[in-house]
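Researcher: Let's do a round of design. I'm pasting the structure tokens now; please hold your answer until I've finished.
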């Protein structure tokens, strides 16, 4: 066996509906693993790839929020073995870049992906989304992209930690440093924002304000642990957040939209010496304008959170254990389970704001 063929979801061109194609998966080479996918969540980033918003390296093999079982490993792989239950990550740290060498592997500047390429049957090279490509029965990754977790957690829930939910939880806990007794405001209550709310609750925040324009999303936010909700289309969220924090503003404001106006609100709703965390992804053409004296005068920190500043080997097994103990409700993020054929429709539901996560089950 030198390669095998499986079904996968491919974006062939900018804005074109995705299609199911036959994917050729090479046997794993040195440092690589082939993983049999059990579940993969539909993330906004998959849609951004299809829209040409990430780069122009079509065709893309989409999907990157996944859990499954290692089928085979290449030469020299010692971290995982066939049969291991894993969550796939897009931060397989190198151990050698300047950030890793400073003891901060969560900021690794040189993460690993598989060296060999997956292709269509005519030899066309595929670009796997975030170096993963998991809307497929199997995928080829770098072995370091496989993080072992307790197999008692179902793949529908576990896979979510591979991207959006980890980004949100990490924005609160890792980047924002939310701790017991803090007040937190979360702007934008989709999957990432709700995960930030769940993370803030896990960390012991006593006040968690959810801000959105959609009452349905605010209802979801309450289920994840928001203590207050505010619809910014009818109420000034900055004034509201101040009113429920003794007139001061929140210790940590998390912007999960990626919009200059919303960022400005997060900036203004923050207490003195507080922290703003940007986890929403702005468009490349956006700019922000802030009163410079306030940036100085309010002190604190304006931070950005990439993938929740997570370290998969540290965070995935820990969060899965908290899930299994009933302290982190990952199942609540799963709005529906679907098949590979339903990814295009799931994109539309996501655009209409009808779902937190559609999860492909294989
Ligand atoms: Zn590194
Ligand atoms: Zn994602």
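Researcher: That's everything. Go ahead.
Model: Designed sequence:
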């Amino acid at each position: 066996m030198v390669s095998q063929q499986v079904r996968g979801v491919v974006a062939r061109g900018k804005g074109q509906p995705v299609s199911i194609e036959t994917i050729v998966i090479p046997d794993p080479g040195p440092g690589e693993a082939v993983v049999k996918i059990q579940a993969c969540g539909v993330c906004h980033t998959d849609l951004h790839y299809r829209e040409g918003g990430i780069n122009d390296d079509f065709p893309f093999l989409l999907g990157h929020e996944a859990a499954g079982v290692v089928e085979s490993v290449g030469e020299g792989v010692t971290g995982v073995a066939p049969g291991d239950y894993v969550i796939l990550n897009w931060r397989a740290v190198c151990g050698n870049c300047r950030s890793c060498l400073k003891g901060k592997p969560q900021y690794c500047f040189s993460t690993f992906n598989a060296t060999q390429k997956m292709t269509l049957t005519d030899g066309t090279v595929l670009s796997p989304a975030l170096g993963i490509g998991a809307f497929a029965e199997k995928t080829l990754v770098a072995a370091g992209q496989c993080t072992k977790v307790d197999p008692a957690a179902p793949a529908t829930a576990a896979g979510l930690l591979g991207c959006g939910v980890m980004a949100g939880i990490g924005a609160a806990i890792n980047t924002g440093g939310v701790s017991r007794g803090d007040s937190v405001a979360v702007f934008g209550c989709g999957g990432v924002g709700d995960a930030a709310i769940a993370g803030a609750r896990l960390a012991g925040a006593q006040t968690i304000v959810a801000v959105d324009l959609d009452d349905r999303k605010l209802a979801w936010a309450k289920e994840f642990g928001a203590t207050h909700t505010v619809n910014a289309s009818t109420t000034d969220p900055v004034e509201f957040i101040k009113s429920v924090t003794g007139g001061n503003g929140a210790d940590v404001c998390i912007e999960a939209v990626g919009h200059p106006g919303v960022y400005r609100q997060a900036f203004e709703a923050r207490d003195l010496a507080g922290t703003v965390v940007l986890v929403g992804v702005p468009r490349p053409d956006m700019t922000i304008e802030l009163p410079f004296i306030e940036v100085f005068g309010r002190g604190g920190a304006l931070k950005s959170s990439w993938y929740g500043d997570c370290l998969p080997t540290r965070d995935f097994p820990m969060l899965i254990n908290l899930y299994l103990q009933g302290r982190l409700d990952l199942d609540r993020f799963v709005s529906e389970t679907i098949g590979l054929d339903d990814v295009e429709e799931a994109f539309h539901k996501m655009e209409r704001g009808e779902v937190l996560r559609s999860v492909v089950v294989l």
